[in-house]
Design a protein that fits this description.
4 helices; 97 residues; mainly alpha; single chain; 46% helix; globular
Length: 97
């Protein structure tokens, strides 16, 4: 995600994000679902000229459930969405220039 979308964050998928409501409302509807949604959100904020700060959060070990992020199906779906996002938002940035 960092190389493809040029988003400089340490933990893109960390679930702890705080935003000003007005900034997020001005972004419109997000198009992606699943693994790439955090990338789309941050990319759209970046394109809108927003800046962000990062703070450390403590992660605890999983207590239950089974992680699914390493399954081939999930990885392929995320890659497909990432390529789609890059093409789609690349067109949007070209149209603005």
């Amino acid at each position: 995600m960092r190389m493809t979308l040029a988003i400089e964050v340490k933990d893109l998928d960390c679930g702890f994000k705080l935003f000003r409501t007005a900034r997020v409302k001005n972004l419109g509807m997000l198009k992606t679902r699943g693994a790439v949604i955090s990338a789309e959100l941050l990319l759209r904020l970046k394109m809108a000229g927003c800046a962000w700060e990062q703070v450390e959060v403590e992660h605890y070990p999983r207590r239950g459930g089974t992680p699914t992020g390493a399954s081939l199906h999930v990885i392929l779906r995320a890659l497909r969405e990432l390529v789609w996002l890059r093409i789609r938002l690349g067109k949007l940035t070209s149209a603005r220039n």
